[in-house]
Structures are given as C-alpha cells and as structure tokens.
Write a structure and sequence with these properties.
The protein is an all-beta fold. The protein has 1 helix and 42 strands. It folds into 3 domains: 281 residues, Methylamine Dehydrogenase, Chain H; 71 residues, Elongation Factor Tu (Ef-tu), domain 3 (Beta Barrel), CATH 2.40.30; 107 residues, Jelly Rolls.
Amino acid sequence: MSNILGIKHYVKADGSESIVVAYGNNIGIFDGVSTFTGQGRNLAVTEMEFDVSLDFLLGVNGSNPNLMYDGSSWHAGGSGRRMPVANYVKTVGAKTYLVDLSYANKNFRSRIWYSGLPKNELIVWGYETGTNLVQTQGSKIITSAGAMFSTLGIKTGDPFFITTGLNAGQYTVDTIDFETQITLFEEMKNTATGSTYWVGSNWLDVRTNDGDILRGIGENDNKVLLFKRDSLFKYDERELRRVKGVPGTTSHRSIVNVRENTYYFHDTGIWRYDGVTSFLVSRPIQDWIDGISVSDFPNVVGWADEDLIYWAIGDIVNADKDINITNGVLILDTAAQAWSIGKFAQKITCTTTAVETNARNVYLGTTTDEVLTWHSGNAHISAPIEFQADTVFHFPGQAYNVVEFVKCEVYTLSGRGISVYYKLFGTNKIDTEWRPLGDINNDVTELVFPRGTYGRGIAYRFSEISTRVPILLGRVDTYYKDREARNMPSEVAQ
C-alpha cells in the first residue's frame, strides 16, 4: 500500500473531464465511469499539487520538471513550456502562480513566479534557461541555440543571469533580436561558450530574511494569499502586503474557501481570513487542537461541503482530557459557527471537488492507495461506518453554579440506536471518562440521569457503528435543578 499523493478534477473547455490521481511514482487518469489508466510518468515519490491554467492541467512536486497535460498528452519542460520547478501551483484570475521554486541549481523557497499573457494558446511564463550560452569579449550580443526568447515572453529590462563561466553575474536585457539572440546593456568581458543562464522578471520574493519559507498559496476576493508558517501575505498584482499579527499555515492542503472567507490550519488551531485579517475560530475545541501531533502539522487536509468544512487531522491524543481519536476530523459548521469532532477509518491525504452531471462530489485520497467518494453510500468499503460526535461543555447554571442534572431530550432524524454518553464538568475537576446514559429510540428521546448527578457543566457524546442512512442530530435539551428553582430546560447546540 502507498499514499495517494495528489488528486484533481480536470475539466476542459470542450466539457470533457477526468479525475487525475498521483500515486507512487506515477499518475493515473480516471474517466469518472469505469476506466483508470496509468500514465507511466516515473516521478519522485512525493506530494503533487495540481491546478488548471488555460486548458492545461499543471502538476508540480518540487522535484521533477513541472508537468502539463492537455487531455491526451503530457509535457515536461519541453519547447515553449519552460518554467521553474515549483512545490505549489494555483491559478488566480488570469494568472497562474508557481510557489517555492527551484531553478538554475538553486532553491528559492520564498519566491513566486507568475504567468504572463498567453501566446499561441500557450501559457507564457517570461522565463528561459539553458546551458549553451555563447558570449564574445567586448560584445553585448549573446546567443543560445534552441532558445525561444521571444516566444517565451522575455522583454526589455528583464534581468539576465549568467550562472557559470567567466562572465558569471547579473545583466540587463536591452533588445530581443530574435528567438536565439539577445542584446544586453552590458558588454561581455570575456569570450566564453557553454555557460548556464536564466532570464526573466515575472517573480516576486516574499520576505526572504525572516527564517521562514512559503508553505502554501490561496485566494480571497481574487487576490493571492501567500502563506508562510508564521506569517500571511496578500498580493494584488501591484503590491505585496503582510497581514499584520496573524500566522500563516503549516499545511497547504488545509486551506479552504467558503464564501468570502478563507480558513486554514496553523499549529495554534483553525484560522479564518475575511479579506482584512485573520481570527482564531477553534477555541471551543482547543483540547482537541492540543492533541494534534507535531508530525501531522504539515499533513492536515481540508475540504468544504456546502456550509461544512472538514479537516482530516490524523491521530488526536490528549491524555489530560481523555481524548484519544484515530484519524480524527475537525468539523466546522460555518453557518452556525459550531464545531464537532469525528473520525475516519483511514487517513486522508488529499482531496478534490467535482461538479459532475449537476451533482457535487468530493473525492478523497488515502494512505492506503485508495480514492473514496464522499457521501456516497452508507458504508466504508463495504464495512460499517463508525460515527462519533462530541459536544463542547455546556454550563446551564447561572455563573457556572453547581446544578443537579435530571434528564435530557434528544432530537434526531434517523437516529434510532445511537448510544448517548455524558461527561461532567464538576466543581474542581472534569470527568476523565464518558458515562453511558442510554440509546436513542425515537425522533425525540428522553434520557434520565442517575439521581445525584451534580456538576457545573455537561458534554455529550453520540456514538454508533452501522451501514444505515445518514443521521441528523438536531438538538439536546438538558433539564436540571438549581438550589431554588424547579426543572429548567437548557438547549445544547450541535
């Protein structure tokens, strides 16, 4: 078994579509019906990111030359398609951005490269490189056989870097004479052949002196978001600005857009960027955030399903709070701003969303070399699905007074058979284990607490393993006694 390393729903302008999957050292194409075809790419075994530009699918992994797929053929850095090797790729508006770059035998971990206007139905990057540069002492003219300076969008004023040989250094383009010849502003001091070079200006450095590197790219309101671990930047093609006082992300795949907001994971929790600044929104589930392993910080995967956002976290272990979840999932209802916790049978590595025949489907890659369809069927690979949802603590008494819990009423749809547990927030401590309360037996189920169930707050757990239809948890009304009042209901939002 191996990991699914990347996945993308690829739709061409003619309406043809496919699911592109990176796995092992290869890429496969699924036609969406029954046929999966390996492409024989012989790639480095590492994560691959995909996006679409013009009518091409771009694939990058930071190790191999970037790939372009036109629906029938793959191209890797070929004629007219040269571009810097990148770890991340994203199309925002009319431009496509490459992030965390390698070229000219150097790494540029805080640099982005962006495309220019297309030419002859090709993406133009404004970038050319080679190893056969010819220079003549006292001349400003340089040549490179096989170069495509004009076609690839090199222009007057671009910096020209000779990286090897007697004339190594930075120069400036004066004129593009023809495809294989450029005139520089500066004369060559030496005659030399076989020199390595690169030329182009469609790049931007993002705070290269902060000891951090670019770890992801997103989009908000048609503006580019550039993420480092501990900083976030906004770029609008004119100006690069840091979003003050907020962190970036540790995981590119955690970045999810819902309406006008961009959500993402940092090791401090889940943050929401609203176009101006970011806010930490995961405080209600801080105990679970604290249980995420440092080794999983780079591997958080997020996806949206209408108003719900899911983040596959990996194992969540917080012994102090009696939390031990394998392949945990954090779930945010963005409409209600309510959290819940779940888990999967397998660890999720990547995801893509597809609109197919007017239906919206989410595909999930796993660590077991499988691609799953989200919300399809009532089983996980023919096995029962384990369901578990925990509420946060609810404090019904005024000023967190100690109360006696009497009963609760659970409102569900298709919830029969779900087991209900509870945990008390006492006077001085929190329960370390969940206590069984009973099973749901109707759309509205009354469950009675044992006599003498005292506490300041209460949390509920709902648990089941089955292959039946989806469950809807509506609400829980908790009835309690305080020192002077009769039974009083207190709703716990789900």
